[in-house]
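FIELD: query
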Amino acid sequence: MAGKNFAAALRQYQWKVHVVASLPGLRKHLRRYGADVVVLRGPCPGLPDFVALLRHTVPGLAVVWQAWNVGGAERAAALDAGVDACASAGMEALEWDALLRSLYRRGHRGASAWRVLGPERTLAGPAGERLPLTVRERAFFVRLFDAPGHCLHRERFFPNVASDPRAGARRVDVVVSRLRTKARRFNIELPVLAVRGWGYILLPYGVATSPRADAP
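FIELD: result
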């Protein structure tokens, strides 16, 4: 929860900053707009569960915690809980800018700039792309976002749909085929690569897509 002075200092370094006053408000904002980094300032009860909740809301999200009057044990516990970095109480804007840029680079190295907006059930792209999704299409992308950089086997997308794994594999192929047709109507290049004989992988932003590829 970034204070107004803190947000103003970051904006001077060309960061787009949104200020929220509560943990529920933060989750609501993330579901609607997403984020690259979240800075939690001050006490945060139930930190491990809350960090896990944030990462479920926005896969690949970086989390920084800044707290006052805490010692090494508390900071170590926060890092063990999944926080990416702990900031000292008096850290200046120049150092904040360097830290946030470092986390941004780390998060986008091999990561996808696409995200699923939950309430609208929409695939959102880095250049303002918006692709409406069905329930099953959303489930397909959620599985991909939960495994960044990994090629998922066809049978792993909808394991409970049918008792026959081959039927599940065929079903995900149909989902992807319909997604590609829909994306073409919206003039969107779908960030999904099909790996022959295996499954699908979510591509990082800026990597050219192709309908099919040979397995490595």
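FIELD: remark
Residues 28 and 179 are 27 Å apart (CA to CA).
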